[in-house]
Amino acid sequence: MRANTMDGRDIDLKQDALDGLKMRLRGPMFTPGGVGYEESRTVWNTMIDRKPAGVARCLGIGDVMTCVQFARDHELLLCIKGGGHNIAGLATADGALMLDMSLMRGVWVDPLRRVAHAQAGCLLGDVDRETQVHGLAAVLGFVSATGIAGLTLGGGFGYLTRRWGWTSDTVVGMDVVTADARLVRASIDENADLFWGLRGGGGNFGVVTGIDYALQPVGPEVVGGVVAWPASEAPRVLELYRTLAAEAPPELTLVALMRPAPPAPWLPKDMHGKPIVALLACYSGTPEEGEKAVATVKSFGHPIGDVLVRRPYAQMQSLLDATQPKGRRYYWKSEYLPRIEPALCAKVIEHAARIPSPHSAVVLFQIDGALNRLDGAHSAVGNRDARYVLNLAGSWEQAGDDQANIAWARTAWSDMRSFSTGGTYINFLTEDEGPERTEAALGKGLTRLAEVKARWDPQNVFRTNRNITPT
Ligand SMILES: Cc1cc2nc3c(=O)[nH]c(=O)nc-3n(C[C@H](O)[C@H](O)[C@H](O)COP(=O)(O)OP(=O)(O)OC[C@H]3O[C@@H](n4cnc5c(N)ncnc54)[C@H](O)[C@@H]3O)c2cc1C
């Protein structure tokens, strides 16, 4: 079988070598044409179409160690798939041995210590489901089908970030299979340099097999949801967002977005496909306080739809799932912002009016609070000056529309870049963004990351990521 080596050579991987690997694994192994192969090799973004030489669906740490050793022995290119949600398709690579972690989805919660141990193949929804049994939650992202591993290794933000920081700030330990196929622990007390790099530096240092998250009391009921207005109301609604977000208590996270209205049952049929402005809110404190905190949003102007209500926290965590299905074509451009300026709001309105697809959106996420209070050198994630995230989120269905949709995102981004902190989110970088964008994402941490890489992966076994060159 044809396969690629780490240094880019095309080789013939002998069938008996593959058979030998298969026999040593507990989980199944797939090769092109076989059952399971297509499901593993495809990722959330259909723009990405790569074909690994083989897929090992690992069923435990032993399988991961065996695969890393096999890749080393045969100098094979290795890629790792968590939730497969990375927009640049970093989970998959042509001719590589793919470690598909999707069978490793166990979650163990210790309610007394308020810690959850999650296997690295978990999706966000897996962790929320188990932690909510105890009225607890980890700081995770907005879409429940996203993988915890990629999200956490790149930083991670969601409705709880304003209170407790980046997802990676809340990690208390990780289990990692290193480039020499050893299992190690990374925490403040053990291999602290590795722990520093794993919290934001991407999957550069090993295969993470388990993550321990500090949990916080949240829910089971919160006040959360969306209120929408016609786009003609956008100047007033975005001004409301700007002022409200600047004063909002940390329990309240506000997200503003503009897009063509989706065909959602809570929006009037005659508005479907028409441009709207919406505020998404989640108050993670008590529902009574939450109702007071969102009253201004609910009573503002003449909304066309309002589903900002008391609801289970776990439901809030999957509220946006239907808007982000696997299998569409996606292209994003993104920046961190230090504040929301009136001039930026004007640009949001201008570029939202030019969206060429029914599925795309301009989104402003609020993330300020706890993450700003830690020292810049706390962990590799950095960007401690980020207070909002701007995402120009292009989403469409047909390959023939690629050019128009990519051009829209790029044009809007170059027109709005001047509002940036200069930093960008590593997990939102697309395939065509080069080393200068990785630098914008990792900033001052890059030198130290290169040292950590040199210590833990000097031969750059883990290179199908936002790669850091060992020094
Ligand atoms: C619809 C959608 C919503 C999103 N919402 C948010 C959000 O609210 N907040 C947020 O912060 N981000 C969000 N993101 C971005 C998300 O954090 C990244 O896409 C992230 O890479 C997804 O992780 P994954 O495990 O699904 O990715 P994958 O594509 O599986 O992997 C991404 C990278 O991580 C590496 N990796 C995966 N598993 C491991 C492992 N076990 N060990 C070592 N390396 C590993 C892969 O090799 C690859 O380099 C969202 C993305 C999408 C598509």
- Strand element count: 21
Q: Describe the sheet with the most strands.
A: 8 strands, antiparallel
N-C termini distance? 34 Å
- Give the rounded overall mean pLDDT: 97
Strand content: 15-25%
Cα-atom radius of gyration: 22 Å
Structure characterization notes:
It is a single chain. With about 475 residues, the chain is of the alpha+beta class. The protein is about 30% helix and about 25% strand. It contains 16 helices and 21 strands. Helix 8 (about 235-245) crosses helix 12 and helix 12 runs antiparallel to helix 14 (about 400-415). The model has no long low-confidence stretch (mean pLDDT about 95). Bound molecules: flavin-adenine dinucleotide.
Descriptors:
single chain, alpha+beta, binds flavin-adenine dinucleotide, five-stranded antiparallel beta sheet, 471 residues
